[in-house]
Amino acid sequence: MWFKLQKLVFFTLTVVLCNCGEVKPEALTVGEKKCDHCSMSIVDMRFHTQIITYKGKRFHFDAIECANQFINQKQIKPKQIWVSNYLQSNESIPKENAIIIQTNKIRSPMGGGLAAFKSHEDAIPFQN
């Protein structure tokens, strides 16, 4: 009986400690997932946006505007939002640290022209 209790305690502590770490964005490959708002395949990773809720549910979007509409329509409170760096699509930036611009020089998947950059200097050539 004592051994079973020890195993249960050990297992519980392992699960709790493994889930206490920093939450990071998932790396996707092109076409692997569909947008949770518009159901388009996510093929242009420069616009990929991820949301994670406080309950741990992840949502993936093909454009920043899809993520914004999803949050407003579902009235969810995201724990974290990551946007892809337009100039380096394999790099995710926390939305609160990103420079997000809207321009007609960039064609995003949904046509809103929203793109995220790591710095103001990176965004300057794309501004109207």
UniProtKB/TrEMBL annotation:
The lineage of its organism: Bacteria, Pseudomonadati, Spirochaetota, Spirochaetia, Leptospirales. This is Accessory protein NosL. PANTHER family: HTH-TYPE TRANSCRIPTIONAL REPRESSOR YCNK (PTHR41247:SF1). InterPro entries: N2O_reductase_NosL (IPR008719). It comes from Leptospira levettii. It comes from the Bacteria.
